[in-house]
C-alpha cells in the first residue's frame, strides 16, 4: 500500500554520500542466486505440502490407488501392463519367503510413480488454465461462455478443498513484457504531464535506449525469468526495501484501524487478550494451511507466498542492506508499556493460553508500578533511526543485552499498550480521528518496535490498531489477517457483561518476564539522537481521516462504473483543484495472479483523465463531462487489467534498471524513469472476507481501513476503503513542512469532487443539492451520536 515512497527512493538506496554503490556480484551470479533461492523455496514448499496434504491430490489418494492396484493384483489383473513384474525383477532377491513382500513393494513403487505422474499432469493442466487471462479483457460485469467454461475447468482441476499454498506449484510465472511496449506505454503516460520540449527530450532518450541498451538488458532479464520464480520480486524486496537506508517510520510502514464507531470493551487488558488470542488462532490456521486461498470470482487463485512471513519475522538492520529473519515458531510476544519491555508467554503445556489468561498477563503489566530504567523508555526509537546507524548500535546492544534483544526480535509480534486513549469522540470527531491515524502511523517515535513484521497497538480506552512494516508483504495480506482478528475477537470470542474476556483467570500462571537492558553511554547518546529524528519525522506528518457517508459502493454500482476507477477519477479532479496541475499518480495493483507476484503501478493520470478534469473545470455540459468520464474510466480499467496480467510498465523498467546497474551500464533513460516523483499515491484497501461481517444488520462492525505516508515531501498519500455499501473512508497524509500540501484542504476537495462526479449521473443529481443546501458539515459521524468510540455493551456483542 505504501510502497510508492520506497520506490521513489530507489536511486538513493543505490547511492552513498552522493556516489553510486557498486554492486559486487555479476549479473550472471545474481541470476544464478535468484534461481537457487527460488528452487530452495520450491523444495521447502514441496516438503511442507507433502506433510500437510498435496493439492489437488492428497496422501490418502495414494493409499486408495495402492489399494486398488493390490485388489486388481489379487483378482489376477495387471493394471501395470507388466511393469510391476519388471520392478520385481529389479528388487533384491530375499528368498522365497519374501516373494509376497517383493510384490507389495513393486505395487507400492508403481503406485507412487503413477500417483506422481497424475499429480504432475494435473499441475501442468492447471498451470496452463491459470495462464489464460482473457477473462480480464471482458467488459466490466459481463462473462462470456468461453470464460464460464474456463472457470469450470479451473474448478475441476483445483480439487474440492484447496489449501492455502496448494496452488503455488500451478501458478504461472510473471511474463517479461516486450521492451518496446513498456517504453511506448511510459511515453504515453508522461505525455499529458510534460511540455513539448521536455517530451521530445524524453522520447529521444527512449529511442536511444531501445537502439543501444535495451536488447542486452532484456536478454538478461528473460534469462532470469527462466531461472527464478519471479523476475521482479526478489529484486523489489532487496533494492526498494532492504537496501533503503532511510528511517522506517512513515516511510516503510502503514497502519490499519479498528471499527470506526464501536469499541467492544473499554478494558485495555481484555481487548489485548482477545486480540492476541485471535491473532495466534490465525497463525495456527496459517501453519495448518486451514486458511482458504483467495480466489477471484470464487475460482481463480492468487499467490499465497506472502502469508509465510506474517508472524515470527523481524527486519534486521545492516550497514549496507537489511535482511528478513523468519522463525518457524515463537511462543511469546514482546510487550511495551510505559517505557518498559516484557516477554509474555502465549502457550502453556496445554496449548495456547485462553483470552482470559492473556488478559490476566496484560493486566499484570498495566498494574506493575516499577519505572523504566534510564533510556529504556526511548530505546525503541533506535528502530526509527537511519538503518546504517541502527545496525551499528544494534551490534553493541547484542553484546550488552543479548537475551532482551532476542526476546523482542524472536517474538511472534510486538504489542504496545499505550497509555493514552484514541478513536472517534463525540466532542471533536474530525480531530479525534486525525489524532488516531497519526498515533498509528507515527506514534510518539519510541513506542513501536518497527523492525517487527507488525505491532499490535491497544490504547487505554480499548481501541485497537495495527502498525505494519512493509518489506515482508503488501497490505492485502495484513488486511486479511486484520479482518479475521476483528471478527474473531468481537463476534466469536466475545466479552462478558462486565467487559472482561470470557472464562476464568489462571492463578497458577507465571507473571510476564521484565526484560533487562544493559545500556552503555554510547547507546544512550544514540537513543537520544534517534528520538530527536523520530519526533521530527512524526511531528511533520499530517494525517486526515475522511469518512464520506453521502453515498458508497451501491450507488457507484447503479452507475454501472467500476468503483475503483470512479474513485481514481475523483482523486484526479480533487488533486487538480488542490494543486492546479496534473502529476504522476501511483496506484498500486496486485500481480498475485502469478507466482510470488507482489504489486505493479497503475499510472492513473492518463490523457483521458486530464480531458475529463479540464471539462469539469471548464463547466462543460453534464453530457459532455459524463462521456469524457466514461472514456477515462475505460482507460483506467485497461491499465489496471494490463498491470494485473503482467503487462505493466514500472516493474519491467525497474528490473531493466537493476540489470544495467549489475552490468555497470549507464542508461540516461532508465535513470530518468527511476528518478520520477510520485506527487499523488493512492491505493484501495479491499474488504476480502465479507462473510466475516454482517454489514446489513451491523453496518458499524467493519474495519475503517488504514493509511500510509506520502511518497514525496510535497505530495499526498491517499488510501480508501468501501465500508459496506453506503460509506467510503479516505485516509490522507502529507508533510506539514510542505507549503504545497494540506491534508484537510485536499479532503474538502475530495468531498466536493465526489458530489460533483455523482451529479453527472441521473441517480446522483439530487445529492449535491440535498447535502449542500442543508449546509451540513460532514463530520463523518452519520450513524448518530450514540455510536462513538466509547460505545460498548450490547452493541458490541452481535452473534452471527
Automatic annotation (TrEMBL):
Transmembrane helix among keywords: yes
Membrane-related topology note: Multi-pass membrane protein
A GO cellular component annotation in the UniProt record: glutamatergic synapse
Function: Palmitoyl thioesterase specifically expressed in the endoplasmic reticulum of neurons. Modulates the trafficking of the glutamate receptor, AMPAR, to plasma membrane through depalmitoylation of GRIA1. Also regulates AMPR trafficking through the regulation of SACM1L phosphatidylinositol-3-phosphatase activity by interaction in a malonyl-CoA dependent manner. Binds malonyl-CoA and couples malonyl-CoA to ceramide levels, necessary for proper spine maturation and contributing to systemic energy homeostasis and appetite control.
Choline/carnitine acyltransferase domain mapped to chain residues: 174-751
Gene name per UniProt: Cpt1c
Polar residues bias spans: 791-800
Domain (Carnitine O-palmitoyltransferase N-terminal) ranges: 1-47
Enzyme class: hydrolase
Protein name: Palmitoyl thioesterase CPT1C
Annotated transmembrane regions: 50-75, 104-126
Amino acid at each position: 500500500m505504501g510502497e510508492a515512497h520506497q520506490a521513489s527512493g530507489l536511486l538513493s538506496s543505490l547511492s552513498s554520500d552522493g556516489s553510486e554503490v557498486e554492486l559486487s556480484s555479476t549479473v550472471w551470479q545474481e541470476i544464478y542466486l535468484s534461481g537457487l533461492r527460488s528452487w530452495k523455496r520450491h523444495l521447502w514448499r514441496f516438503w511442507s505440502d507433502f506433510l500437510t496434504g498435496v493439492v489437488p491430490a492428497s496422501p490418502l489418494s495414494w493409499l486408495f490407488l495402492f489399494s486398488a492396484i493390490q485388489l486388481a493384483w489379487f483378482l489376477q489383473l495387471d493394471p501395470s501392463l507388466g511393469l510391476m513384474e519388471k520392478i520385481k525383477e529389479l528388487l533384491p532377491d530375499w528368498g522365497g519367503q519374501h516373494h509376497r513382500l517383493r510384490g507389495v513393494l513393486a505395487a507400492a513403487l508403481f503406485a507412487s510413480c503413477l500417483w506422481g505422474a497424475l499429480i504432475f499432469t494435473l499441475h501442468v493442466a492447471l498451470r496452463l488454465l491459470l495462464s489464460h487471462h482473457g477473462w480480464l479483457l471482458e467488459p466490466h460485469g459481463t462473462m462470456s461462455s468461453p470464460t464460464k467454461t474456463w472457470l469450470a475447468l479451473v474448478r475441476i482441476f483445483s480439487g474440492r478443498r484447496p489449501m492455502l499454498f496448494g496452488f503455488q506449484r500451478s501458478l504461472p510465472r510473471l511474463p517479461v513484457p516486450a521492451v518496446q511496449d513498456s517504453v511506448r506505454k511510459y511515453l504515453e503516460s508522461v505525455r499529458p504531464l510534460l511540455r513539448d520540449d521536455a517530451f521530445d527530450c524524453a522520447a529521444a532518450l527512449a529511442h536511444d535506449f531501445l537502439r543501444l541498451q535495451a536488447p542486452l538488458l532484456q536478454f538478461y532479464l528473460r534469462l532470469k525469468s527462466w531461472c527464478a520464480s519471479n523476475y521482479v520480486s526478489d529484486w523489489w524486496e532487496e533494492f526498494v526495501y532492504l537496501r533503503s537506508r532511510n528511517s522506517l517510520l512513515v516511510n516503510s510502514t502503514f497502519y490499519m484501524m479498528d471499527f470506526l464507531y464501536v469499541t467492544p470493551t473499554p478494558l485495555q487488558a481484555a481487548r489485548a487478550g482477545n486480540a492476541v488470542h485471535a491473532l495466534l488462532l490465525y497463525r495456527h490456521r496459517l501453519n495448518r494451511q486451514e486458511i482458504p486461498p483467495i480466489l477471484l470470482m470464487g475460482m481463480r487463485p492468487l499467490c499465497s507466498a506472502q502469508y509465510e512471513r506474517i508472524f515470527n519475522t523481524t527486519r534486521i538492520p545492516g550497514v549496507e542492506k537489511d535482511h528478513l529473519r523468519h522463525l518457524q515458531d515463537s511462543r511469546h510476544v514482546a510487550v511495551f508499556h510505559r517505557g518498559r519491555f516484557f516477554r509474555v508467554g502465549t502457550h502453556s503445556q496445554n496449548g495456547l493460553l485462553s483470552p482470559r489468561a492473556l488478559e490476566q498477563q496484560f493486566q499484570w503489566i498495566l498494574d506493575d508500578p516499577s519505572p523504566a530504567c534510564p533510556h529504556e523508555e526511548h530505546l525503541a526509537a533506535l528502530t526509527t533511526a537511519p538503518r546504517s546507524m541502527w545496525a551499528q548500535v544494534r551490534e553493541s546492544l547484542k553484546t550488552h543485552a543479548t537475551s532482551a534483544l532476542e526476546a523482542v526480535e524472536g517474538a511472534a509480534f510486538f504489542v504496545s499498550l499505550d497509555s493514552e486513549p484514541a478513536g472517534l469522540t463525540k466532542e471533536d470527531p474530525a480531530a479525534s480521528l486525525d489524532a488516531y491515524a497519526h498515533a498509528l502511523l507515527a506514534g510518539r517515535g519510541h513506542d513501536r518496535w518497527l523492525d517487527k513484521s507488525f505491532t499490535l497497538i491497544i490504547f487505554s480506552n480499548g481501541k485497537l490498531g495495527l502498525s505494519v512494516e512493509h518489506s515482508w508483504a503488501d497490505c492485502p495480506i495484513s488486511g486479511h489477517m486484520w479482518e479475521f482478528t476483528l471478527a474473531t475477537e468481537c463476534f466469536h470470542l466475545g466479552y462478558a457483561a462486565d467487559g472482561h474476556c470470557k472464562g476464568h483467570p489462571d492463578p497458577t500462571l507465571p507473571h510476564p518476564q521484565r526484560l533487562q537492558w544493559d545500556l552503555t553511554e554510547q547507546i544512550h547518546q544514540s537513543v537520544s539522537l534517534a528520538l530527536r529524528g523520530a519526533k521530527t519525522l512524526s511531528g511533520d506528518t499530517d494525517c486526515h481521516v475522511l469518512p464520506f457517508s453521502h453515498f458508497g459502493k451501491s450507488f457507484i454500482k447503479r452507475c454501472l462504473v467500476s468503483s475503483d476507477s470512479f474513485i481514481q477519477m475523483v482523486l484526479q479532479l480533487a488533486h487538480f483543484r488542490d494543486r492546479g496541475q496534473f502529476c504522476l499518480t501511483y496506484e498500486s495493483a496486485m500481480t498475485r495472479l502469478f507466482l510470488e507476484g507482489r504489486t505493479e503501478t497503475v499510472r492513473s493520470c492518463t490523457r483521458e483523465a486530464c480531458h475529463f478534469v479540464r471539462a469539469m473545470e471548464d463547466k462543460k455540459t453534464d453530457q459532455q463531462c459524463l462521456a469524457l468520464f466514461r472514456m477515462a474510466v475505460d482507460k483506467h480499467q485497461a491499465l489496471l487489467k494490463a498491470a494485473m496480467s503482467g503487462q505493466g510498465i514500472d516493474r519491467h523498467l525497474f528490473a531493466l534498471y537493476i540489470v544495467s546497474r549489475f552490468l555497470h551500464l549507464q542508461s540516461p533513460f532508465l535513470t530518468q524513469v527511476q528518478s520520477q516523483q510520485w506527487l499523488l499515491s493512492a491505493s484501495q484497501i479491499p474488504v476480502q472476507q465479507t462473510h466475516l461481517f454482517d454489514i446489513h444488520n451491523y453496518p458499524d462492525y467493519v474495519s475503517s481501513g488504514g493509511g500510509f505516508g506520502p511518497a514525496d515531501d510535497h505530495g499526498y498519500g491517499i488510501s480508501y476503503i468501501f465500508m459496506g455499501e453506503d460509506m467510503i473512508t479516505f485516509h490522507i497524509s502529507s508533510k506539514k513542512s510542505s507549503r504545497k500540501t494540506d491534508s484537510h484542504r485536499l479532503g474538502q476537495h475530495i468531498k466536493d469532487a465526489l458530489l460533483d462526479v455523482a451529479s453527472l449521473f441521473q441517480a446522483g443529481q439530487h445529492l449535491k443539492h440535498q447535502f449542500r443546501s442543508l449546509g451540513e458539515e460532514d463530520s463523518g459521524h452519520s450513524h448518530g451520536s450514540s455510536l462513538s468510540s466509547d460505545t460498548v455493551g450490547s452493541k458490541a456483542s452481535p452473534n452471527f
